[in-house]
Amino acid sequence: MEIGGLQDFIGIQIGLKGGFCEAIDDYNLSGVVLIGYQFTWFRGRGSSHLVEERLDRAMGTPSWHDRFPQACLINLVAPVSDHNPVLLQMETLIFRRRHKRFKFENKWLLEDALPSAVRRWRYKFKVFPSIGFCKEASVDDSLNGVMDSVVPLISANQNAELVGEFEIDAFRRTVSQMHPDKSPWSDGFNSTFYQHFWGVIGGDVY
Q1: Is the pLDDT of residue 2 over 50?
Q2: I need a labelling partner for 94 at 20 to 30 A (CA). Which of 78, 125, 172, 198 fits?
Q3: Alpha-carbon Rg of the chain, whole angstroms?
């Protein structure tokens, strides 16, 4: 099909636009609310000739809006396109606020009142439970044959030292060699805290 000229092209565009408007009126369509940035198309971003428009929409009939009263459009980000994607969300999402887990902050060490507070907690609440270690592991009888075929990589003396009783000094040295700001233990206190206040709580931890 060959278009005769610019006037024919304009006529086609006007006809398409008129038909679209008639369809909206015939079906009594209305737009879905857009949440976020109100423009979905842009040209010339980063220049002085930026043009932005709201081109992308969603519409529904009155019965559809009654069925989904919380429906909305979410304007998303498109890093490589001039059209932002829009997400149709059928109902409002309820975000439950999670209980924030306690985590010791190293900046608290700058507080002059912290040492006395730790001592009060230590004697009043006993908030620093001892940490247990597995010293021996039992082997099922059915695995004895397998274990006999395992070539040991440590000597008998090294093994005796590993399964022996922990001494508090050895425990202290181990704690002092840990990275001070690694992930906190289950109680929310990191290695920095235990290293700094070992003289107060070391016996409890051990």
Answers
A1: no
A2: 78
A3: 35
